[in-house]
Amino acid sequence: MRAVLAWLAAGLWLGWLGLHLGALLWGGMARVVGWGLLVQIVPVTALLWFVPALLWLLWRRKATVPHALVLLTSGPCLLLALQGFSLYPVAYPLTSLKRARPPVAVRLPTDEAMLVVWGGDEIEHNYHALDPTQRWAYDLVIEPAALGVPELEAYGCYGTEVLAPAPGRVVVAEDGHPEAIPGQFVPNWKYPAGNHVALRLETGTHLVLAHLQPGSVAVSVGQEVQEGQTLGRCGNSGNTSEPHVHLHHQRQDPGRVGLVAEGLPLWFRDLEGRDGEIMPRGGVELDGDEVRFLGERVRHRAR
Ligand SMILES: [Zn+2]
User: Which of 83, 222, 255, 266 is the 20 to 30 Å CA partner of 9?
Assistant: First the structure.
């Protein structure tokens, strides 16, 4: 009887774990959602099996086969909590710059010189990389930046026209979210993108431009826009610590699935003094209360 219960408990756990691993093998959106659950939900549930199995082992000093299976599979799952709670973030591992298709190359979203806060393939240069949707996202500012002051107008980016990085059809044009106060980072999990525009490109994939100024969104859903056309103005709405342009490339239509999707590589072309397609790197250094941006400076090349 006891053996039957032990096998039942082990089977329940292994089935649960298998469900998530199966989602990763399935690919596509199942992989994205499966990864999210694997790093956030599975470690918590693993604890519910790991602790009793460990206590039993210590008490009885012998492990049966179902005990061993539970201990050996739930133990490593606890480590996934490091990723799920951002304690030791690593780049989303289930895709790569070479394998993720299609990549796109677009122009910069303003005509100004921009500083890359986060960008690139590696997590040291691009914090977004831990998130499957934002795997190759950028955060771009215009100097002066990293001021830590609450006045929006003090930041170089604030109010700058945000331009369509490529031609496309508008699939999201959301406005009406208020500005967050810069330098006083209060997470906004309900509307992380704030006022934002999404474009469907000729590849059938989508660009998302976020954190626009309230009342500035200048396009509407269904509209065809040309490259370089004004979409809105740089602002600080949504989950943001200072005025910047967030830009990412995702496969699924954010008008349908929102901002949980397969992130895709995004390159810049037509950069001043740079040939070909570039994935500029970001970087941020924290020195006590002071924040320093160490990323590359880039500018659109006027034709
Ligand atoms: Zn961002």
Answer: 83
- Cα of 43 from ligand 1 centre, angstroms: 27
- Residues with Cβ–ion distance below 5 A, ligand 1: 139, 246
Phi/psi of residue 209, nearest 5 degrees:
-120, 120
Contacts of 85 (CB under 8 A, 6+ apart): 40
Q: What is the pLDDT of residues 122-172, one digit of tens each?
A: 999 999 999 999 999 999 999 999 999 999 999 999 999 999 999 999 999
Question: Among 49, 50, 22, 52, which residue's Cα sits nearest to residue 37?
Answer: 22
Compute, in angstroms, the gap from residue 202 CA to the centroid of ligand 1: 24
Q: How far apart are CA 123 and CA 126, in angstroms?
A: 5
- Ligand 1 center to residue 214 CA distance, Å? 18
pTM over 0.90: yes
Q: What's the 247 CA to ligand 1 centre distance in angstroms?
A: 7
Q: Token digits for 231?
A: 């979409």
Q: How far is the CA of 195 from the centre of ligand 1 (A)?
A: 13
